[in-house]
Design brief:
5 helices; disordered C terminus; 5-stranded parallel sheet; 176 residues; 3-stranded antiparallel sheet; alpha/beta
Length: 176
């Protein structure tokens, strides 16, 4: 089956309101700008975005935040987006902060089909609130669930669409 599509609009053709989008990039490097613009044009709402951060106020994933298309942000860093700050402080945006390594492992666990994992990171802190905890080999650990998107995106590259999920094959990501 050939999953190569012609453009970003075609790659997100089946995306619906409430989708969970996992987006590549670090800061503004390696962002799937064409896919972000396609999502913006399509106008889908109530998105959950899983990414390192939410871009800046008017670049990267911040474009979707600015247009009120994002309901929840799962990230490890949120410091350069004033609109993000405004929406979070006003209660308009749900935020789930994760330590960088935990976010990466949640993504890996989801891709590997795992049911989750135990980590000492965050044990005994606010991050642990409401999560299962155990003492393993004398260390307190908290259970983290995997991240499973309905759409994955990274850029630049060839977008693909396979049934209920979409992704992109990166080519030259973050190169000048």
């Amino acid at each position: 089956m050939n999953k190569v599509v012609k453009n970003a609009d075609e790659a997100i053709r089946d995306m619906q309101d409430g989708a969970v989008v996992m987006s590549g990039g670090f800061g503004l490097s390696g962002n799937p700008e064409n896919l972000i613009e396609a999502i913006h044009r399509k106008g889908v709402k109530n998105l959950t975005i899983i990414s390192n951060n939410c871009g800046t106020t008017d670049k990267g994933l911040g474009v979707l935040l600015q247009s009120r298309q994002v309901r929840k942000m799962v990230a490890s860093y949120v410091g350069e987006n004033k609109e993000f700050e405004r929406q979070f402080l006003s209660g308009e945006l749900e935020v789930e902060l994760n330590p960088q390594g935990t976010l990466a492992e949640r993504i890996r666990a989801g891709g590997a089909g795992l049911g989750g994992f135990f980590t000492p990171t965050g044990a005994g802190t606010q991050i642990a609130q409401g999560k299962e905890s155990r003492v393993i080999d004398g260390r307190e650990m908290i259970f983290e669930k995997p991240s499973r998107p309905t759409m994955r995106s990274c850029a630049p590259g060839r977008a693909t669409n396979g049934g209920t999920s979409s992704s992109a094959r990166p080519r030259g990501t973050s190169r000048p």
